[in-house]
Amino acid sequence: xxxxELRYFGDPVxxxxxxPVTTFDKKLEQLxxxxxxxxxxxxxxxxxxxxxxxxxxxFSYEVDNLFGYVINPEIVELSEETHEINEGCLSxxxxxxxxxxxxxxxxxxxxxxxxxxxxxGEDVLAQCLxxxxxxxxxxxYLDRLEKDRKRQALKQARDxxxxxxx
Length: 166
Description:
This protein has helices spanning 26-39, 124-136, 147-158, and strands spanning 46-48, 58-63, 66-78, 82-89, 92-102, 104-110, 116-122. With 166 residues, the chain is α+β, with helices and mostly antiparallel strands. The chain has a single domain (12-158), classed as Peptide deformylase (Peptide Deformylase, Alpha-Beta Complex), CATH 3.90.45.10. The strands form 2 sheets. It has a 5-stranded antiparallel sheet. It has a two-stranded antiparallel ribbon with strand order 4-5. The N and C termini lie far apart (31 Å). The relative contact order is 0.20. The model has no long low-confidence stretch (mean pLDDT 94). The active site is at residue 132.
């Protein structure tokens, strides 16, 4: 089991749009294995490749006993119905803020054999799918917060010991 070191808010890799996966080889297989191993500890729901320093479009998830990964994911459907749901991030530890998310989401991508994969979910799984896909687009959940809440969150993040650019 390989738990990869996490990258934290302030690290430029987290604000970079990830490259699509074009080579399906042992290196990609190892990345997927590391993402799956690294999402397993309690308190984790999803993990995107940039959170472990890799700028490729891959994420893993484990929500409500659903466990897997998606390569080159794209959100293909979001419900019109939204809600504010408490959200946190492994790359922004200890901070949780209500974030507006679609209640239902559908992601399409591929697996290690480059075969189509579709993952759909509601509530927490929908939140996870949106959150992890955002990471691959260089977007943190803090970017989605309302103006005043975002200002408060950024100030709190910059005061934390883990903040990358101290």
